[in-house]
Specification:
Length: 320
């Protein structure tokens, strides 16, 4: 029996590629060049499944061109805003993601952003690396305490809850907004706000952890930023398109916001150029899930979905 063929659209960790080679006829992307939609359609012509990343947009037009033999599209991500699920369903192609694989790594990174922004880490690094540090003084690079501050978590799913667990250890008071209130044990004494607006009013530090959907896109716009307490800090480890960049940059320039910590950007990697000139933004290049353990887990979860779909079992994280 020949092995099923899997089109793998990006370079993946060695252990994941080794499992792919072991179990499948894997069409790997050795140079990690991002394929165009036409290239994806051509490369998938003899594939039984695709293992994609968020860089590949699975549009209805592309789904239309996929061969009948293609049974599954598994994404190496939790977010699935790049996949048109309805189009996959209409063709009977299983679409699946990898939830729960990156919870702890992403929550760690949210704390790094919170600390980086609150403690002016970018400016501090610059001072040292550029040889400008003239020695300790009492008013140099003053940030803010996390202890006693109110952390507003927008999106209290797995990652939001993991951020809350960490932040409690820093002595922060946890507030959140979610589509629905969590059960008492999961809420763990966090304060629920039925609207995002109510959450913003009490968020000294706001952490965005909600998925990007048509309803959440541009959620943090100028009107909502105005509701945050003066001098608030905003961090985003979810998706860049949930923030109106121009409004955020304006608030960072005016001092309405003290600082921001951003790991994700609208149109990344081409982030708004004004971010680069702002000293009060702590910038990272979408590395929320970038740990060795987590990236392996993400790959194995994607492969578990592919294995199941091709063996006629329900994929563990099927999206339709
Ligand atoms: C995800 O899984 O959604 C991460 O942001 C990686 O793209």
């Amino acid at each position: 029996m020949p092995k099923p063929t899997i089109l793998v659209t990006r370079r993946l960790p060695p252990a994941v590629e080794a499992r792919l080679r072991r179990d499948y006829d894997a069409k790997l992307n050795q140079d990690d060049r991002i394929y165009t939609s036409d290239e994806l359609a051509a490369l998938a012509a003899d594939a039984d499944g695709m293992l994609i990343c968020t860089s590949e947009k699975i549009t209805p037009a592309l789904v239309e061109k996929l061969p009948d033999r293609l049974k599954v599209i598994a994404t190496f991500s939790v977010g699935y805003e790049h996949i048109d699920i309805a189009a996959c369903e209409a063709r009977g192609i299983v679409a699946a993601n990898a939830p729960g694989t990156m919870t702890e790594a992403t929550a760690d990174l949210a704390m790094l952003l919170i600390l980086g922004a609150a403690r002016r880490s970018y400016e501090a690094q610059q001072l040292v690396r550029q040889g400008q540090w003239k020695g300790w003084h009492a008013t140099m690079l003053l940030g803010i305490d996390l202890h006693g501050k109110r952390l507003g978590i927008y999106g209290m799913g797995r990652i939001g809850q993991a951020v809350a667990r960490r932040a409690r250890g820093f002595g922060m008071e946890i507030h959140y907004h979610n589509r629905s209130r969590l059960p008492h044990d999961l809420e763990a004494q966090a304060t629920y706000h039925a609207t995002l607006e109510d959450l913003l009013r009490v968020s000294d530090i706001l952490s965005i952890n909600a998925p990007s959907t048509p309803d959440t896109r541009n959620a943090l716009n100028a009107e909502r930023i105005a509701l945050l307490p003066d001098g608030a800090v905003v961090v985003n480890t979810a998706r860049g398109d949930m923030i109106d960049d121009v409004a955020l940059i304006g608030a960072l320039k005016s001092g309405k916001l003290r600082a921001a910590g951003l790991d994700v950007f609208a149109g990344e990697p081409n982030l708004h150029k004004d971010f680069l000139a702002l000293p009060n933004v702590y910038l990272l290049p979408h590395i929320g899930s970038a740990t060795i353990e987590t990236r392996d887990r993400m790959g194995y979860a994607a492969l578990d979905n592919i294995d199941a779909a091709l063996q006629g079992r329900p994929a563990p994280n099927r999206l339709w």
